[in-house]
Amino acid sequence: MVANNKLFSTIQNERVSNIVEKRIRKAIFDNHFKVGDKIPSVREFAETFGVSRTTIQEALRGLEKSGLIVIKKGATGGSFVMKGDTTSVTDSLKDLLHLKQVTLQNIADVRLLIEPPICAMAAEKITDDDIERLEQWNQELKFMFQSGNPNLENDPTMHTLIAQTLGNPLLTIFVKTLMEIHTYKMSDLKLSKKMKMDILNQHQKIIEALKKRRGAEAAENMREHISSVREYLLSIG
Predict the structure, then answer these.
(1) CATH code for residues 16-81
(2) What is the pLDDT of residues 125-174, one digit of tens each?
(3) Strand ranges in 44-174 using DSSP code E only, listed in sequence order
(4) Domain residues of the chain, as ranges?
């Protein structure tokens, strides 16, 4: 049987810059370079790998785009290992939002799956200092609403803080990413006065349940909060 040339394309060798990028990435993951460390220069890497400087520059740009390193110019410049953040993941999800492959309702559905259980577990580990920070953020959000700012820029901090109490960095990153996308999309919307008040009250109910260390109640309050926001978004299209 003859292979269909339209179905199968010729296998191409992987770009050298991609191979170099993977090797430098692995060196960082293997702790040969730590956060804040300056990695070898373009010239040094070119000599080590036996490739052109252009190839090294392409590899470093790929690492910078993924948020693994930052490239600084000037006499004290160079490439430095960064502390991981959610920027690249957030940017990818933003692209999907623009392409309408992911909706705010999709994000709310995922949040409903993970944030109520997080609240339940947080009730067992949350400290008085954590509670104080949550209350402070809700007060700042109230002031922001009263000043006429329609955005929810402070809201993600509250949700992320609750996740942080569990000490699981993966959960924190996941919640932070979801909330950054949620806030980014919500910034285009004008919230009604009633919705702003509902959000503040729902936040306070969550905080009160956590303060009393009532996990099931905190989880249910979080579920009601996310569902309420989800329904509001559906109602305004």
Answers:
(1) 1.10.10.10
(2) 999 999 999 999 999 889 888 887 655 554 557 899 999 999 998 888 88
(3) 69-72, 78-81
(4) 16-81, 87-235
